[in-house]
Amino acid sequence: MSTTEKVPLKTLALVFAKLGIMAFGGPAAHIAMLEQEVVEKRQWLTKAHFLDLMGATNLIPGPNSTEMTMHCGYEKGGWAGLFVAGACFIVPAVVLTGLLAWFYTSYGHLPALAPCMQGIKAAVLAIILGAIYRLGKKAVKNYTLAVFGLLALVSSWCGLNEVWALLITAVLGTLFFMAKAHRSNRLQVSAVPLLSFSMLGAGVVQVSNLKVFLVFLKVGAILYGSGYVLFAYLDAELVQTGWLSREELVTAIAIGQFTPGPVLSTATFVGYQLHGFGGAVAATVGIFLPSFLLVLLLNPLVAKMRQSRVLSYFLDVVNVAAVAIMLSVLVRMGQSVLVDIPSLLIAIASIGIHFVFPRISAVYIIVGGALVGFLVYY
User: Mean of the pLDDT values across residues 22-45?
Assistant: First the structure.
């Protein structure tokens, strides 16, 4: 299929709903599965454009893997495709999280899912490694870009915030390539479009659906980073204001970590705790709405950025830095997941299957990991 050919909304809905059901393992795993589905399997996007979208998305707030699904939906179905793809990716996680919130509220505990999750986490490492390999081959166009990728990787390993690692690497790389081009008398400078966003806020006096919506809208509009960063935001907005206990917040974050789809589905769990079904809907819409709007604004600009020599330098460095950050995340995940022989063997087997038989869907690898995990750890 041509990368410019539009896709029926029904097809987009089915593809991204499937991804939403099977997208375990966090943002790096989600992007890896997305790349396999829309670039490798369906050829809806080229590797180069996928990398451009990924690099640009890393620079805006919100759940990056979810925003990538929205970008893909926009590319294949316009603004309607954006909303269909994003909603279908989010809904499975939101529904499951809502059911778990109801179960937790009604019975005071959660079903034991840990055995399956341990196997899934080990299998997901293979999916991420495959995406890093494929995207890295496209992003590392020369030795200089490799050096800047290494700079981003080392910065991340040394504890620098991922967004800052990307920005600093991108700025340094852009300046380097501009200076190099200037020496060759080939520099062409284009204007840089700037977008500014104001922070939304609301005074918290009592819990209502409107107040829940406004608090999560603010969080969604300014959130950078992982689920642990989300924990810090929600701690300040909910625990310190007396809306929620810290124990309840920890439970909600845990739910977001082991359910499929975006970790921001944590908002659904918290919203239900605060105000039942209405609170769950208000929190979910609030935290994801900024992403839909940001992607709607950003997507048309990515292609224009490629037309500017300066911004093209910027995208090249951001792309290779984004792949390096994925590698850093993979190493940290491996350290926390590969804690015993069974998990190590599951990961090795999954990597072998993924690289020897690249046409096998990531879904089957994840399901296999879950089954083996259940048999080994239950």
Answer: 85
Residue 240 resides in a domain: no
What angle separates helix 114-139 from helix 341-356, to the nearest 10 degrees?
A: 40
Rounded Cα distance, 368 and 361, in Å: 11
Instruction: Look up the domain containing 96 and give its range.
Output: 9-142+292-307+318-377
- Dump pLDDT digits (tens) for 228-261: 456 667 777 888 788 887 767 766 766 766 677 7
List b or e across 319-346, with b for residues whose CB sees 16 or more CB atoms inside 10 angstroms. bbbbbbbbbbbbeebbeebbeeebbeeb
Quote the DSSP letter at residue 357. Answer: S
User: What does each C-alpha distance from 347 to 44, 94, 112, 136, 325 come to in angstroms?
Assistant: 29, 28, 22, 21, 20
* Within-domain flag for 205: no
Given a contact cutoff of 8 angstroms between Cβ atoms, the answer to whether 145 and 139 are in contact is yes
What's the gap between Cα 12 and its chain centre?
18
Alpha carbon distance 26, 366 (integer Å): 13
Helix runs in 1-46, H state only: 9-22, 27-35
Number of domains in the chain: 1
pLDDT at position 193 is 35
The C-alpha atoms of residue 366 and residue 378 are separated, in whole angstroms, by 17
Distance (Å, whole) CA 284 – CA 266: 9
